[in-house]
Amino acid sequence: MTGTGVRLRGLLVATHAGPMAVVTLLALALSAGISAGRWSTTLVTLAVLLGQVSVGWSNDWLDAPRDRAVGRNDKPVVVGAVSPRTLRTGAFAALAACVALSFSVGWQAGLLHTAAVLSAWTYNAWLKRTMLSWLPYAVSFGLLPAFVVAGAQDGRVVAGWTVAVAALLGVGAHVANVLPDLEDDGATGVRGFPHRVGRRWSSVLAPVFLGSASVLIVVGPDRVPGAFTVVLGLLALLLAVSAGVVGAVRPRSRVPFTLSMGVAAVCVAQLVIAAPFVAVPA
């Protein structure tokens, strides 16, 4: 692979491509689900994509010294594929483009999404090392459906249950996602909420948050849930209970993390199915 190819691949990996794709596709599905219109859906999706890119790049730029200290060879900046300076420049450029696109679908939508992305930046810059590490996830995820609905500019407002579901999903994903890196984080001085409550409690709490989100998707919307939604909810609860039990008994097992990610995936699927109920009359 040429130098340019290595650099481009490094930039892609540094976006945290998996989470970036999930959040962007979720925004797309929600916007399409509320019939926001082709133009609004396009702008909202691009704004979320750029916001996620800025968050991923800022994370790898700010974490470069820590990642080098613990030998994180899965990080492009550690193996020299891309420099921290390049990531810093790209992060700010993506942030500026994200803000511009967010405001292009309305001032209210712009304020909501700018707040969501800046909240994620506060995690990267500071809050990840505090007991409040969960807060940016609750705020940023919670504001996502609010931004999508505001972007439709048709007088509807976001349903409260959706904001709660997204916030729970964000917090649960945060706690679960930290589990594989607890020791590396501790070695470099990062002590967020999961680190302070410990591996066993984190292994239990992650599926509790995610399972609660799944239940709320079933009972929250003002409609009788369909059979498929109920089946997915039961599957999410089964996975969540299994993750919690294994986490309590064998906290060092990787099973709680894997099962919690499964619950998160089911929750996202449930939320996509419930998309038409995300927006309600004012």
From TrEMBL:
Transmembrane segment boundaries: 12-32, 39-57, 92-122, 134-152, 158-180, 201-220, 226-249, 261-280
Record membrane topology: Multi-pass membrane protein
Keywords associated with the record: Membrane, Transmembrane, Transmembrane helix
Compartments it resides in: Membrane
Protein name per Swiss-Prot or TrEMBL: Membrane protein
Organism: Paraoerskovia sediminicola
UniProt superkingdom: Bacteria
The keyword ATP-binding is annotated on this UniProt entry: no
